[in-house]
Amino acid sequence: MKILVCISSVPDTTSKINFTADKSAFDKNGIQWVINPLDEFALTKAIKLQESQGATVTVVNVGDAGTEAVIRKALAIGANDAIRVNTEAKDSFSVAKEIAKVAQDGGYELILMGKESIDYNGGAVPGMVAQLLNFPFVNASVGLEVNGSEATAVREIEGGKETISVKLPAVVAGQKGLVDEKDLIIPNMRGIMSARTKALVVVEPSNSEVKVEAVSFDSVAPRAAVKLVSADNLNELVRLLHEEAKVI
Amino acid sequence: MAVFVYAENINGIYKKAAFEAVSYAKAIATKTGDSVTAISINPTDSSDLLYKYGADKVINVKDAGLKNFSSKAYAQAVNEVFDGNVIVFPHTTDASSVAPMLAIQKNYSLITNAIEVPESTSPFQVKRRAFSGKGFMHAKADAAGVIVTVSQNAYGVKENAASGSEEVKELSIANEDTKVINHEQSSGKLDLKEAEVVVSAGRGLKGPENWGMIEDLANVLGAATACSKPVSDIGWRPHTEHVGQTGKAISPNLYIAVGISGAIQHLAGVNSSKTIVVINNDPEAPFFKSADYGVVGDAFQIIPALTEKIKALKA
């Protein structure tokens, strides 16, 4: 089985997010880049399928040369090879178009990724890729097994879970719970060494159309100073929540 | 031309997310001088519930084949009846899975996680959540048509009664790519993303056996329960309760954090809560800097006492 895992390169989760002085762009100064954590759940699941079913795992990233360190990390984690589409990711549509092209050209049977990236939070690429390929789509997946030409996926629904069988090829977007935190793979020296010699193919973009533009950005406004209430005076806390904040 | 809205129902029943989406569509329609048309798939609830928030027309899609949810089949069904330039979706799990597929089918722009009424409708421009709660983006649609998903608990529910009319549309969409094997859903449980009050706890609680007092407090407040990342990672609580950058982002009216230090990843998921209360025995916990109200002390004393006092207030 051929699996394509789509990864996005995002600021490390501990990053403070700043914008340029004119607020037109995200300020990348001093940022450490990591595999989008939700994509990493998907990659980890793919590596498990590689181990249990002999699947081959290709990672794809849409990004400029600056994302290669993150792609090499995915190879060190265990992906067989990688493809980078050489263009800065501009919006969900343009990224989905590139991924769909790579997926079509490579004939992958399972396309895995996180349900959203933790930077732009579009949550749109997985569904767009599925529609562009006319594949079935399972979102918010918290469990996945493959049996021949079918997969069994568990997806989160409002107030519960649903287990479904889906015909392959399909697009599955994962979230927290797809694998356990303890299953995440920290690359060892052998993985890091072998990642250097694995194929990382750079392809040029096939599409230049975007459908959404980022006009400007705002930071989160800081809160006013905290009002501390003594642990012996919880009546005051209840009063503040009831009369001042009016939330209870 | 009407502003459309996808009125999601859960097993036929309209929930708050649908009312928020209709309220939001009404706000757009008021700006553009248009009417609101809601689309729902196999609802059992009365359309009166949608008129109340401003729907002038409700198209009820009847399709026995859509009993089970599939993003692709649902997107096709909406596409059959949606013939406008703007459609609003709630940003729930299912609806946010349908919207991107519809965007490709219609060749429209898709803007997700909108939190305010659009700044402009032509071109369509709106403020949306980005960077997992650490920032906001003003996004502009380039295509002639736009699909916008509205973040839960952001715009809110606004009554604006219309004298609506209903149309039934019979469809038979192919829905064979996916089959439901098992469906577990507790209808009584308050959905975390929809909840107006959330009580959340972290490692400060020392063990999963101590969650009873958190649930008691949540019960008196009519709140949902949540937890920090470490707590879900070690399995004290289910992943579905994890709020933060890699879990769920929530924006309730009141967020009470117990024994959570307030790492930046956690704050990202909760800092759009309107009021934040932090209870922690460490006065240096960074969360106090991002809270409205704080209590320094032992949660095992404070939480049961607070529960009693709120019970007394509500009585």
Description:
The complex is a heterodimer of chains A (248) and B (315). With 248 residues, chain A is α/β, with parallel strands linked by helices. Chain A has one domain: 3-Layer(aba) Sandwich (Rossmann fold), CATH 3.40.50.620. A nine-stranded mixed beta sheet of chain A has the order 9-8-7-10-6-1-4-5-11, sandwiched between helices. In chain A, helix 2 links the parallel strand 4 and strand 5. The longest helix of chain A is centred in the first third of the chain and has 17 residues. The termini of chain A are far apart. The mean pLDDT of chain A is 97. Chain B has 315 residues and is α/β, with parallel strands linked by helices. Chain B has two domains: 168 residues, Rossmann fold; 118 residues, Rossmann fold, CATH 3.40.50.1220. In chain B, 26% of the residues lie in helices and 29% in strands. Chain B has a seven-stranded parallel beta sheet, with helices on both faces. A five-stranded parallel beta sheet of chain B has the order 15-14-16-17-18. Chain B has a three-stranded antiparallel beta sheet with strand order 8-9-10, covered by helices on one side. In chain B, strand 4, helix 2 and strand 5 form a beta-alpha-beta unit. Chain B is globular. In chain B, 58% of the residues are buried.
Topology at a glance:
The complex is a heterodimer of chains A (248) and B (315).
Chain A: E1 2-6, E2 9-11, E3 33-35, H1 37-53, E4 56-63, H2 68-77, E5 81-86, H3 92-106, E6 110-114, H4 125-133, E7 137-147, E8 150-157, E9 160-167, E10 170-174, H5 189-197, E11 200-203, E12 212-219, E13 227-229, H6 234-244
Parallel strand pairs in A: 1-4, 1-6, 4-5, 5-11, 6-10, 7-10
Antiparallel strand pairs in A: 2-3, 7-8, 8-9
Helix pairs in contact in A: 2-5, 3-4
Chain B: E1 3-6, E2 9-10, E3 13-14, H1 16-32, E4 36-41, H2 48-51, E5 57-62, H3 71-81, E6 86-90, H4 95-106, E7 109-114, E8 120-121, E9 124-130, E10 135-141, E11 146-150, E12 165-170, E13 178-185, E14 197-201, H5 212-221, E15 224-227, H6 229-233, E16 254-258, H7 264-270, E17 275-280, E18 293-296, H8 299-314
Helix pairs in contact in B: 3-4, 5-8
